[in-house]
Design brief:
Strand content: 15-25%
Strand order of the largest sheet: 1-7-6-2-5-3-4
Radius of gyration: 17 Å
Order of helices and strands: HHEEHEHEHEHEHHEH
Distance between the termini: 35 Å
CATH topology: Glycerol-3-phosphate (1)-acyltransferase
Shape: globular
Oligomer: single chain
CATH class: Alpha Beta
CATH architecture: 3-Layer(aba) Sandwich
Number of strands: 7
Largest sheet: 7 strands, mixed
Helix content: 40-55%
Number of domains: 1
Length: 235
């Protein structure tokens, strides 16, 4: 760990403590997601993220579907919208990260178990009936930062069942895309260390694209349309 990384971790500790105190208070009034948004945005700035947004985020019952490059995506997007993230079930068991994800009301799903597809869709459908957007990294994992792989259609069914809009979102790190990509097979610890240690500011643009109507498209068509919109925005 570099000196820069150590200083960032030291600064992150009081940031977390303060937000946990506010989270406990805000929870009494059903406003905890606003505190989560503030924490993610603050942590992102501490790590060098400089976020710019384009377009208008849809509020309420909406499934946000985005490309996925790095765990920094969560800080960049979650710092702009009070939302809940769909996460792999194993993340719930990660030290500290799993606990924080649970406090942020992540929707944990077993993405690699086809037998659990119905339960996964039901969990996301239930989340979409609540007031905050739900975020799906629809590629099913991180890519190489350059190519946006086809979106998996299964969880788009939740938007159809909940009568929710689907809003494609493009996360664009510009020329840094490839360098930020989470290397295939790399565990979270070394990858977190790599990005915590990095120097300099990191511009990122979050493009909120026109929403799709889940009332007129099935899950497969939604996946194709959303993928095309994100790819187009990143071109």
């Amino acid at each position: 760990m570099t000196l820069r990384g150590i200083l960032r971790l030291i600064a992150a500790a009081p940031l977390l403590i303060v937000h946990l105190l506010f989270w406990a208070i805000a929870r009494l009034f059903g406003r905890e997601q606003m505190v989560v948004m503030s924490f993610l945005g603050s942590l992102g700035r501490l790590l060098g993220l400089r976020v710019r947004t384009e377009g208008v985020p849809v509020r309420g019952a909406v499934l946000i579907v985005a490309n996925h490059i790095s765990w920094l995506d969560i800080l960049a997007l979650g710092g702009e919208v009070p939302c809940r993230f769909i996460a792999k079930s194993e993340i719930a068991r990660w030290p500290l990260v799993g606990w924080l994800a649970a406090l942020g009301r992540a929707v944990f799903v077993a993405r690699d178990r086809r037998s659990a597809a119905r339960a996964q869709a039901d969990a996301v459908t239930t989340a979409l009936h609540e007031p905050h957007p739900v975020v799906l990294f629809a590629e099913g994992g991180t890519g190489d930062g350059v190519t946006v792989t086809p979106f998996r259609a299964s969880l788009f069914a939740s938007a159809v069942e909940a009568g929710a809009a689907v809003q494609p979102v493009a996360i664009d790190y510009g020329p840094n895309r490839g360098r930020l990509a989470w290397p295939s097979g790399q565990s979270f610890g070394p990858e977190a260390k790599r990005l915590i240690n990095r120097h300099g500011k990191l511009p990122v643009t979050i493009r909120f694209l026109p929403p799709l109507d889940a009332g007129t498209l099935d899950r497969k068509a939604l996946a194709v349309e959303a993928h095309g919109a994100v790819v187009g925005a990143l071109s």
